[in-house]
Amino acid sequence: MSINRECYTGRFIGGNILLYCPCCDKGVLGIIEDTFIHKSTKKSADDMEITGDVSCLDIKFFTFLECSNNRCKEIVVMGGIGKVEEEYESSEEQYMGTSCISSYEIKYIDPPINIIKISDEVPSCITDTIKDSFSLFWGYPSLVGNRIRTALELILNEKNVKSTGVNKNGKEYRMSLHERIKEFGKIKNGEYKELQKMLLGIKWLGNVATHGEEMKKEDLLNAYEVLDCILDEIFVRDKKLLGVKEMSHDLEKSFKLER
């Protein structure tokens, strides 16, 4: 499923949030009338009074959202920051004045939005870790990469990829994530070789995040899309394939007996 990136990386103006409900994944969230509260910090308001420059304003906002799905109607809490920009209005003939446009950036949502939809076939330990990363996406993007890295470790655990090796001196050691991903590429006669490359790409992002470096939301969304593909291939497609093989085997037994 392709992610609508504008919803996650841009600012919103007015009530145009365009995020899906975290509970039903069907309805669109909308601001509940009369719940949107926004205030400027005192210092920024004082600066604006002195300079007359509205771009000085440092705005904080808080609001309640409601799902548009009549069978759901879940309530979501959202908060964040805002700014004001002055726009000049003119026609071909004359200058018509200025208008102020307020835009807002989300820093907190509860319950967190499902950035990718995770199948019920995915083990709960992996699902919980990824959903934990969703709650951090808005305000703490650097921590998201760390959670995604943890999810990779859990995926390898579920596929029984070994976590220890033996060094040249014959001593057991704990394998790095990189080494484990390399081992993952060898299982099932190399069937996961392409997925191994995808896992390594996400691993590098996780490494950078673990060292506390700034993470761009665009890069995190790339990681989520790759992770979505990996989860589908390993836990959904594999199970479907197993079911199809079993049905094929049953058909073979039934019709061979008839002949």
Automatic annotation (TrEMBL):
Residues 137-227 form the DUF4145 domain. InterPro entries: DUF4145. Pfam families: DUF4145. It comes from the Bacteria. This is DUF4145 domain-containing protein. It comes from Candidatus Nomurabacteria bacterium CG1_02_47_685.
